Amino acid sequence: MVIKPYLIGPTRIPAVYVVELQGADDIVLDHLVLTGGEYGIYAANNVQSDRLTVQHAAIYAMSRYAMYLGTANHDTRLTDSALHDNQYGVYLAGNNAYVAGNGVFDTSREAIRVGGANALIETNTVYTSDTGIYLEGSNGIIQDNLVYGNANRGIYAYTSGQSLVADNVVYDNATTGIYANGSTGDSLLLVRNNQVYGHDDNGDIGIQILNQAKAWDNLVYGNYIGINASDYSMVESNRIFNSVTGINMIQGASARGNWIYSNTIGIAAAGYYSRYYGAIDNNVIYDNTDTGIQLKDGGIYNAYQPHIHNNTIYQSVGDAVRILNSSTDVDVYNNIFWVDSGYALNVAANSQANFQADYNLYHRGTANAKLAIWGTTVYTTLSDWQTARGFDGNSVAANPNFVDINGADNVLGYNPAGEGYDGGLDDNFYIKKDSPAIDRGWSWAGPKVDITGMPRVDDPATVNLGSDDYWEQNLGTSQFALVGVAQNWRSDNYRWSYTIPFSFPFYGVDYTQFYVSTEGFLQFVNNTNANDSANSTEKLLSYKRIAALWDDIRTNGTGDDIYIDTTVADQITFRWDATLNTDNSDINFAITLHNTGEIEFHYGGGNQNLTPTIGISNW
Fold first, then answer.
1. What is the pLDDT of residues 183-232, one digit of tens each?
2. Beta carbons within 10 angstroms of residue 478's beta carbon
3. Radius of gyration for the alpha carbons in the chain, expressed in angstroms and rounded
4. CA distances from 555 to 169, 237, 291, 418 (A)
5. What's the N-to-C CA distance of the chain in angstroms?
6. CB-based contacts of 587, cutoff 8 Å, min separation 6
7. Separation of alpha carbons 272 and 105, rounded Å
8. From CA 216, how far away is CA 214, in angstroms rounded?
């Protein structure tokens, strides 16, 4: 059915519902002008009015909703219409809604709100409402919209599943440009390639992400806080400038591969809980007027166990890294620091517990620059710092030889005198071929790719002066042997502590004790989940482990045990004679550790019908 009136002016119907649907399917409302009711178009929950199409409509001056379709009204299409001066704009609770090409404005609450799954909201212009676009259904897409001037948030996405907020222009909203809450642990909410600016009042936020949401490849500028990230969310590959704080992050959030410049503070961070989360790595941070990276008190979240790796930080004024407010367990590796005044490292007296720094390159651009301040003690040079504190034993003081930090236009970062001109697009912090930063890093701290996504490779023309690394080598024919003394370690989903007769280096740290699991791996540091039989790569990467054959196996079958052989000097072999739980078949393998840090995996007979996880991890 198609309703298409040929009217010159609006139709005023003094009713609660101007148009009410009560189960009719496949209705098309074309070129209608609706005004003067409580609801412009209404369908109650579960009436199942599916496949409604509203196009080329004008809906305004409704005391409640311009358009309200409750649950179980699916496959709605709203296109090329104007909705304004309503209390609420559009609310669609059914699945598969399509909202495109509309102008929605002057609404006192949400302009467009979609609660059903699989929504597509695109090419709308949404402005001067309370919240512009509100997505709460799963697996939705918000893309190519223009959202501005709203009294609260521009885009609000609180969604599960694989949802996307992409290619929108969002500016001058009162509190937040884009708010993205992943809401559940298994969701992937991606905020990608948006342009977000003009949220510059005290405390305003350009993009806010939480609960494992990801902000990727966005252009974010002219905000009070560029990107605010929490709850294990990820800020990656964004360009963030001309804000008070470029990235503010707490509670396990990470920042990777971003260009962050011409802010007051580049990254302000607090509240990490493990080294698996809370990474600040691969960022280029420069021309910030106070601090490049600041670890701080985040209210109830102090900066605990963050790692700062592989960043390039140039500070003409202020400090490159400032560590404050009882931060603990901070490690600083593989960074390039250039300071012209202030300190490369500023570590407060209450933030020195378990601090580590090494394999960094430091450059003092002028005599006013200092390498570090430790509490109140100043260390001007790297050698002073190394001698007095013992940090940065493998670091170097040298000019990194950047290609051209202010680019062809000779404008470093954002230039407020240039009427909003962004001079950062051509700023070049790549290092030249003879840079002293080449092949000088700590291999195990560095991400596998650089800020451009290119894999890290060895430069054959440069002598390697960094740390060792692990390389896989095939031993050829099987060297598995029935060696060792039975330990009577016969169990399922269990682990035992063992002290080896020498110091074993693993990812640069020496160990003499670890846990031996029935499930086919060795685990360092603690016994948390060292009895876990549900193997996966993600879990392996969450622990310090050596896994020769991690699977659902046990060592309490007939003839089973774990054997240890120490008869060869400076090495130890752990051998599993085990049973696969799924079919009771035989499993045979071994791990040999050398005092040099080399690791060997050996495999014997059986070992069929497996779904194993094999590898090493430093979490």
1. 765 668 999 999 999 999 999 999 999 999 999 999 999 999 999 999 88
2. 10
3. 30
4. 59, 47, 55, 71
5. 61
6. 520, 549, 551, 553, 576, 577, 578, 579, 580, 606, 607, 610
7. 41
8. 6
Helix runs in 224-359, H state only: none
HSE-CB at 301 with a 13 A cutoff on CA atoms is 20
In tens, the pLDDT along 442-500 reads 888 778 888 888 888 888 888 888 888 888 899 888 889 999 999 999 999 999 999 99
The CA-based angle 275-307-294, given to 5 degrees, is: 130
Other C-beta atoms closer than 10 Å to the C-beta of 561 total 18
Asked if 286 and 427 count as a contact pair (C-beta separation under 8 A), the reply is yes
Q: What are phi and psi of 37, to 5 degrees?
A: -105, -170
**Element (H or E) spanning 383, and its range?**
helix 382-389
Q: How far apart are CA 598 and CA 604, in angstroms?
A: 20
Using the 8-state DSSP alphabet, how is residue 27 labeled? -
From the number of C-beta atoms within 10 Å of its C-beta (0-12, 13-18, 19+), residue 611 rates as exposed
According to DSSP, residue 231 is labeled: T
Q: 598 to each of 209, 273, 456, 546, how far by Cα in Å?
A: 42, 30, 22, 12
Please give the full DSSP string across 444-469, using - where no structure is assigned.
Answer: TTS-SB-TTSPBP---TTS---S---
- pTM given for the model: 0.88
Ramachandran bin of 42, using left for φ above 0, alpha for ψ from -120 to 50, beta for the remaining angles:
beta
Helix H, strand E, coil C: the string for 527-576 is CCCCCCCCCCHHHHCCCEEEEEEECCEECCCCCCEEEEECCCCCEEEEEE
Specify the DSSP element, H or E, that contains 100.
Answer: strand 98-100
Q: Which among 591, 443, 602 is positioned nearest to 524, based on CA atoms? A: 591
* Phi (first) and psi of residue 340, to 5 degrees: -100, -20
CA–CA separation, 148 and 185 (whole Å): 30
- Name, in order, each residue with C-beta under 8 angstroms of 526's C-beta and a sequence gap of 6 or more: none
CA–CA separation, 98 and 81 (whole Å) = 13
